[in-house]
Amino acid sequence: MILLNRRRALLSLGESITPNLPSDYQQVEYIEGTTGQFIATGVKIGTLSSPEVEVTMKSTGKYQGADVYALNGIYLGMPNIFQVGLALTSETTCRVTMNIGSGAIGVTDLDSSKFYTLYAKNGSQRVNGVEIGKANYAYNESDNVFYLFGRRDGNIIQSYNMQISKCKILDNGNLIRDYIPCYRKSDNVIGLYDLVENRFYTNQGTGIFVVGGDV
Length: 215
Known about the structure:
By secondary structure, this protein is mainly beta. It has one helix and 19 strands. The strands form three sheets. Strands 1, 2, 4, 9, 10, 11, 15, 16, 17, 18 and 19 form an eleven-stranded antiparallel sheet that branches.
């Protein structure tokens, strides 16, 4: 009962649950999408009262003379946009790109070899805990879900090259997804295990994820 109450308290505070994967799953440093892979979280942003998304990620695309994006979320035209990601701006630099409703927020000239924790909610957008914007949430589309390793752009799912080491989704301060990168030991299938739902999310696109080292 004490453990259950602590778990409920953590959920209400929006804090991560201490990773405790089922015995058939091995936590890893990250999983990597190499174009074609994506995960639909099942979370319909437009139905949440106060959505918050936090993704720790690194872009793994190849710069070819123009910005190369790595985005998570939904893009259905303003104001129905809720996405967080990075864009490579050279072979060694990247920028943060976030769109929350009609507001576009970014930070430039970052080291593209590093992971960044991107956080977005109504009225506050942050990178590694530092606030970079105060865009207001205006999303009102209720039928589409939030994507990882890609985004819905109209009727098309676009996937991107990136590594994700953790992701949390909250509503009104309550944790509703807490994703841990891992693979299933019995068959080596790679994906994200959600500690809130106790559910394993695997690739819903083409190809396979690449896996980081065991943790």
